[in-house]
Amino acid sequence: MSDRWQYLLVLAACLAITAPLELFGSGVYRHPRRLARAVLPVAVVFLIWDMVAVAGKVWTFDASYISGLRIPFGVPIEEVVFFLVIPVCGLLTYNAVSTILDWRNHR
């Protein structure tokens, strides 16, 4: 397999590993509006930051590890997905840990 899919594969693994955490508490995916309000504003800010940095050649991405698909200003699609996937994984983890701690404290 080509290395160019590694970034996307790592992101897919993050989602797969944290997906079962949806079963704890009120869930994250079960509240899409709340999820969007939590993730999208921050994702947009960091995406703009990346666009400026890549366009200004402040940083680049190793072409060996990305698919080659890019959005305007040269930002790889994997970076866009990163700004969505990692916060969702964080919210899933936070929700699960909070729920487990609540269960423990109410015993």
Automatic annotation (TrEMBL):
Indicate the principal place this protein occupies in or around the cell.
membrane
Pathway listed for it is:
Carotenoid biosynthesis
One Gene Ontology molecular-function label: lycopene beta cyclase activity
Instruction: Output the Gene Ontology cellular-component terms.
Output: membrane
Q: Which InterPro entries match?
A: Lycopene_cyclase_dom
Q: Can you cite a GO biological process for this protein?
A: carotenoid biosynthetic process
Give the record's keywords alphabetically. Carotenoid biosynthesis, Isomerase, Membrane, Transmembrane, Transmembrane helix
Q: How is it placed in the membrane, per its record?
A: Multi-pass membrane protein
Q: Which Pfam families match?
A: Lycopene_cyc (PF18916)
Q: Membrane-spanning residues where?
A: 6-26, 38-60, 80-101
All residue ranges annotated as the Lycopene cyclase domain in the record? 7-95
Query: What is the name of the protein in this document?
Result: Lycopene cyclase domain-containing protein
Species the sequence originates in: Mycobacterium spongiae
Give the classification, highest ranks: Bacteria, Bacillati, Actinomycetota, Actinomycetes, Mycobacteriales
